[in-house]
Amino acid sequence: MSLSTHLEDGFFIAIGIIICLQVTVILSSAISTRFRRRRSSISLGRLQLPEIIVKDNRVQLYTYGMNLYRDMLEDIYSAKKCICIESFIWKADRIGTAFKEAVTKKAREGVDVYVIFDNFANMVVPSEFKRFPANIHLMRYKAWRRLWDFFDPRRLARDHRKLLVIDQQIGYVGGYNIGDLYGAKWRDTHVRIAGEGAKNLYSSFVDFWNAHSDESDHMTKVTGSLFPYIRLYANDATRLMFPIRSMYIEAIDLAKERILLTTPYFIPDRFVLNSLIRAAKRGVDVRLMVPEQSNHLLADWLARTYFTECLRQGIRIFLYQGAMIHAKTATIDRTWSTIGTANLDRLSLVGNFELNVEFLNPEVADQMEVIFIADLQHCRELQLHEWVHRPILQKLGELVLSPLWPFL
């Protein structure tokens, strides 16, 4: 058999393995979400956090979804010119219907309404609900449209962003999707920015719309002032640009005292993990908060493969109990903070379309610490001696699943 034949066979075998792994990840995620979607067994804390002024921008943090949805809907109904809404998941339930009715009403009143949601993430949402009136600009983002797109890593990216911008003056971004479950039963974090900083959120929406919409008329981009205290980082999978990962690594490497991280799925690449380990070794208090049991069984098992090394290197791990914590946040040295849509996993950091806001502001950082400390009341700290003596079958399962980490 010739060398070319061997190479050809090897190529098709490799492609087959990649497809099988992708299908495995997709199916396991769907199945685990189906069976692990549960009600919270705790009363989620509803912190009353005061509004913060950051260079003429009014900044409001949210840790309870129903309060967030109330304010989002109020701002939508107050819109005069333009509404831009983008959500990874938009459920056809009471909350989802309230948002759809709100944007539909404003479109009838003459407000320009743009809607984006990820088509793959909303496969189980009824088709009728995903139809909007003709006077609403709609994009159902499709990761792949042709069979060969499946072999292009850029086409496997999903639109994981959650963004709302009203009249270019008010912007929301964070971890909350749109739905009853997320609003009342999950612990997440979102931020509202009112002021010049919202224009940069609008600009990010425009960039995504113009790059992926089938409509011939493009939106007009407006660039706001680049405040040094509020910065926007947008991952663009099509252009293979992933600044959120670099933002995290740089901030971690500069840490001197304390790093507080919250993420629903902890599957970092080696560079991110090494940054955290280096910080712990130089005496930084590194604390990681993750759900004890998330909505993705596979992600949980893969995350556990990192726990032993983290604990041995001095990183403290806190397991959030009784509810799904879905926040994607970090705060460092009571100065730097980030809130957004990116998890600390490969899919978010070097895969999907994501959006994070960075704050260089002590007041924002103080509130982020208050939130982290409040969440600790629902956590138990994982100890190294406990972890190394976990059941052998659990260790074996982690070993078997570990090759899947590049796909999550």
Can you walk me through this structure?
GO terms for molecular function: phosphatidyltransferase activity. This is PLD phosphodiesterase domain-containing protein. One of its GO terms (biological process) is cardiolipin biosynthetic process. The protein is globular. About 7% of the residues have low confidence. An 8-stranded mixed β-sheet has the order 1-2-9-7-6-3-4-5, sandwiched between helices. An 8-stranded mixed β-sheet has the order 10-19-17-16-11-13-14-20, with helices on both faces. The protein has 12 helices and 20 strands. It has 408 residues and is an alpha/beta fold. The protein has 2 domains: 176 residues, Endonuclease, Chain A; 165 residues, Endonuclease, Chain A (2-Layer Sandwich).
What key attributes describe this structure?
single chain, 408 residues, alpha/beta, Endonuclease, Chain A, 8-stranded mixed β-sheet, membrane
- Give a quick account of the main beta sheet: strands, pairing sense, barrel closure: 8 strands, mixed
Q: Which blocks of ≥5 consecutive residues have pLDDT under 50? A: 6-32
- Order of strands side by side in the largest beta sheet? 1-2-9-7-6-3-4-5
Inertia-based shape: globular
Task: Please state the average pLDDT score.
Answer: 88
Which secondary-structure class do the elements indicate?
alpha/beta
CATH architecture of the largest domain: 2-Layer Sandwich
The CATH topology name of the largest domain reads Endonuclease, Chain A
Q: Roughly how many Å is the radius of gyration?
A: 21 Å
Q: Got a strand count?
A: 20
Number of domains: 2
How large is the count of helical segments? 12
